[in-house]
Amino acid sequence: MNVLVLGTGGQVGASLVGMLGCFAKVTPVPRTALDVGDLDALRGVLRAAQPHVVVNASAYTEVDAAERDEPRATLVNGDAVGVMGEECQRMRAGLVHYSTDFVFDGGGSRPYREDDPVAPLGAYGRSKLAGERALTDSGAPAVVLRTAWVYTRWRKSFVSAMLRLAREREVLRVVSDQVGNPTFANDLACATAQLLYGMRSDPFAALAEARGIYHVAGAGQATRFELAVAALELDPRSQEHKVRKIEPIATSEYPLPAERPAYAPLDCTKFQARFGLALPGWKEALTRALRD
Ligand SMILES: NC(=O)c1ccc[n+]([C@@H]2O[C@H](COP(=O)([O-])OP(=O)(O)OC[C@H]3O[C@@H](n4cnc5c(N)ncnc54)[C@H](OP(=O)(O)O)[C@@H]3O)[C@@H](O)[C@H]2O)c1
User: Is 177's pLDDT higher than 80?
Assistant: First the structure.
């Protein structure tokens, strides 16, 4: 099975390369090799590679910057994803794509299911929703994995930011009124690899048959504050910390350009029921991630 992975410089993309490499021939395409927003170049790369599967881990993920540059976010997260869907359909390749909990407004009272109404609060969420719709409306042979709060300790993420700030400041103030599913990027890549391994005899037919949206995120839920506290407690190099106190604060005390959903855990039972796959609990995953 030949798998082309886009966005291999990112958290999920980098991890995918190693995991898929156990059973597939992987063509990694980092941003330095292709700007997916150059739609002609994107078509050219996909046509030249003729893969059996494309995994799109590339995305415009700067949530606050997207407020200032929504056209660019929409080009990368929406239009380019539409082209990936078209090209995959044309060359009979399957597509795995990732989306986000930011398609929801966070006003619910139970974890979101795939068919709950979407209502993004900001430009990033709108751009990711455009990508989802480009795939679901076109009939592309695509599985869309909606995930949340993805982190590694090595690349820019909420967890890596907390670890850095703990070394720089004595007091950390962290919002305690946003709830979500912390998701270790390697676990998401591992679930993606297991999904494709199960489809290896005919990935196009299997992805076409399974096409649709699935929620896939770390099990359990946490507030940003709880995640920060756990990350600092589990940090194997805590002797480097300067921090003495972590204070819970309200989102209104830490205004950012983009509004975040307050309560947006994802209900992942559809993915588990369909594929028999589930991500580990967030705290256990965090322990592994910090040793990584
Ligand atoms: N991070 C989260 O908290 C989170 C939450 C929910 C869903 N997701 C989704 O999960 C997927 C993977 O996210 P991630 O956390 O791995 O993100 P990431 O670490 O930011 O990686 C995204 C990758 O895409 C690349 N990229 C950005 N613009 C590009 C362009 N125009 N052309 C080609 N590549 C481009 C980036 O390049 P550079 O290396 O040059 O930056 C980066 O390597 C994305 O679809 C994201 O929307 C993420």
Answer: yes
